[in-house]
Amino acid sequence: MRSREAPSERLGSTLVALVHLLSLARSVSLPEQTGCAQMSYQPGGAFRRKLVIVGDGACGKTSLLSVFAMGEFPRDYEPTIFDNYVAEIRLDGKAVQLALWDTAGQEDYERLRPLSYSKSHVILIAFSLDTPDSLENVSVKWIEEVRELCGPNIPVLLVGCKRDLRDEAMRDGAGERGRFVTTEQGQAMAQSIGARSYHECSALLNEGVDETFEAATRAAMLVRANPPSGGGGHHGGGGGGLGDDGGHGKDLRTGSRRRDNDEGGGCCGCVIL
Questions:
Q1: Domains (range + CATH), the chain
Q2: How would you write the pLDDT of the chain (273 residues) with one tens digit per residue?
Q3: How many angstroms separate the CA atoms of 215 and 196, rounded?
Q4: How open is the CA angle 193-28-63, to the nearest 5 degrees?
Q5: What three-state secondary structure class fits 257?
Q6: Which of 20, 85, 168, 210 could form a disulfide with 100 if both were Cys (CB 3.0 to 4.6 A apart)?
Q7: Contacts of 209 (CB under 8 A, 6+ apart)
Q8: Rounded to an integer, what distance in angstroms lies between the CA atom of residue 220 and that of residue 82?
Q9: Rounded Cα distance, 27 and 266, in Å
Q10: CA–CA separation, 130 vs 126, rounded Å?
Q11: Measured between alpha carbons, how far is 188 from 211 in angstroms, rounded to an integer?
Q12: Strand ranges (DSSP E) for 16-135?
């Protein structure tokens, strides 16, 4: 049940969220160019890509990003307004700097969330495997928002989170029909929305996390066109149905990682060998 706020409190939190979002936008050093996405190359040799994750509140978005970017699973749940991380990785011998944008799934921030999509290269739509309603919202809400704001061809990956809850229930014989989303149901949804691929993961156990972001990075590296913002543009190599991401063997190596703070700096992350 969502807690109730007085109108003045809600307005105050919305203004704080807007200031925070604008600060995040300044902190992510993607080139200033209009368009929902563009090919960018850092002078130091790293490609830059922006990944945005959306989905229902409490479906596991923040935990997924935190485990990948920081190597830490957040033990306490705090609803995200907006946040971002930076992960520097190597993929097929290429240095890639990923700006990872976490968004609010709550209705209170519906008007602010569209600002997060600017200059994005790939979108992850997340849902929780223990909440079938969150899968339904993928088709009735999230894919519609993504296509409207980023155009029909931006690469989209569908991600089922909290796989450990479903697996544990199945082992204990408590996984009754309808309580959990099956792999087949997730794959069918990915096919229906035109996702490039479907992934299931457990942030708690750190299973399937790197594989998900490897696929997302590969999809982002295919984006070459510069469509106008506001939807309707074209992304080379985007769209498409469920299938192969065109990889040539896994070569995802984690490098330095950090979480950008709201002053535009960034806490020092750790180097994972």
A1: 35-260 (3.40.50.300)
A2: 333 344 444 444 444 444 455 555 554 444 333 334 444 555 567 899 999 999 999 999 999 999 999 999 998 888 888 899 999 999 999 999 999 999 998 888 888 999 999 999 999 999 999 999 999 999 999 999 999 999 999 999 999 999 999 999 998 887 677 899 999 999 999 999 999 999 999 999 999 999 999 999 999 999 864 433 444 443 444 444 554 444 333 345 444 555 665 333 333 222 222
A3: 9
A4: 55
A5: strand
A6: 85
A7: 64, 67, 68, 201, 202, 203
A8: 21
A9: 9
A10: 12
A11: 20
A12: 47-55, 82-91, 94-103, 122-128
Task: For residue 33, give the amino acid letter.
Answer: Q
From CA 156, how far away is CA 92, in angstroms rounded?
Answer: 21
Answer for the pair 79, 56: CB distance below 8 angstroms, yes or no.
no
Give Cα 212 to chain centroid, integer Å: 10
Give the sign of the dihedral formed by CA 242, CA 246, CA 248, CA 250.
negative
Contact 212, 69 (CB under 8 A): no
| Cα 185 from Cα 232, distance rounded (Å) | 29
Q: Which two tokens stand for residue 241?
A: 């149905």
Rounded to whole angstroms, the Cα distance separating 65 from 219 reads: 17
- Residues 235-269, buried b or exposed e (16+ Cβ, 10 A)? bebbbbebeebeeeeeebebbebbbbebeeeeeeb
DSSP state of 3: P
